[in-house]
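Input (p-hydroxybenzoate 3-monooxygenase):
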Amino acid sequence: MKTQVAIVGGGPAGLLLSQLLHQRGIETVVLERKTKAYVLGRVRAGVLEQGLVKLMEEAGCAERMHAEGFAHDGTLISYGEEIFRIDFAELTGQPVMVYGQTEVTRDLYEAREKAGGKIEFEVEDVVIRGADSDKPMITYTVHGESREIACDFVAGCDGFHGVSRQTIPIDVRREYEKVYPFGWLGILSNTPPVNHELIYANSARGFALCSMRNDNLSRYYIQCSLSDHPEDWTDEAFWAELKRRIPSEQADKLIAGPSIEKSIAPLRSFVTEPMRWGRLFLCGDAAHIVPPTGAKGLNTAASDVHYLYHALCDFYEAGSEEGINSYSEKALKRVWKAERFSWWFSSLLHRYPDQSEFDLKMQISELEFLRSNKAAQQAMAENYVGLPY
Ligand code: FAD
Ligand code: DHB
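Output:
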């Protein structure tokens, strides 16, 4: 098989790139290791920056998002019984969109299928060959049958555990990592959200987050130990712990119910440099991971897609290699800003095992500064709604 851009990974980054390129007449093939049902079953991100909203519009996939998603003009931050609001609309003039990653992915799959886009599921043994030549090639197997794709470019959108990053020789790659000594236990439940906006909570018992998908679908997270397993946590234990971590006014009105999904995610900051090797470009979680506290993972994957999409359009439409040559540098500049924000917001809100009394005082002092200082709120809001591309 032959194509212009071979895309490894059918998560949100790979699908969005594929659909955007299709709109400009550039042909792609997407290779996905799992089934479509599996990809759509992974409950993850819920907050979209305007940059991603605009990309979904450009991809022709924004209709359901605008009908069913919720624009949020602010968020609440609590510490102990204290609570305050960051007003995104007033500080930045921009809202964020609450719309699940599963729905983004579903809309993109639907658009690709409608357009007759080529997506291969359940691919195994993907090997990217000749990425440092001008004739890259991908070999893989599907249900035991060997196949290959000759292409002009490879987009590595295969997440943190994919093969694309590993294809870049170790002596060319530099990796930066911070692993956090805790995880997030998340549940989804068919209950009305405790509040119409998100609540990020710092408490003596650890972090908690109250989020939602719609009027009768709530998403809650609590900081947990890395040795915990979802089965260790009954629904009752989860609700009781969540209520202890948010102000009593919120806890008293929280409606509990059976969980329909329960999972634990570890927290990590990770960046690999460069994000390009020859004709291979890394996009999204394949190149970087942020702790989820700032809601930046999917959004940073989208900003990579934005840069790569424009670079490839410039190549095919104007014969310019400028965008391709500057892709890694441009993408990384924004990636590091998202890394900084996610690291800062995580350190503001979690309990760390080695935190001293002094460190705790610093955390509260920083929260009080944020509560009272417009400039600090402005910086937080600009980062949260998304820095410009
Ligand atoms: P992925 O979603 O990981 O997709 C990669 C795809 O590649 C997968 O489908 C995988 O099966 C496939 N693949 C892997 N290896 C291969 C291979 N060898 N061959 C072929 N295919 C392969 N981000 C936000 O912006 N906002 C949030 O609110 C937010 N909340 C989060 C909450 C949690 C609990 C978690 C865990 C994450 C959250 N994120 C959030 C992060 C966000 O979910 C990820 O950053 C996003 O999924 C990255 O998309 P991606 O397409 O780069 O990678
Ligand atoms: C959600 C996840 C996040 O990591 C976050 O910061 C905000 C919302 C969510 O799943 O709804």
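The chain is about 40% helix and 30% strand.
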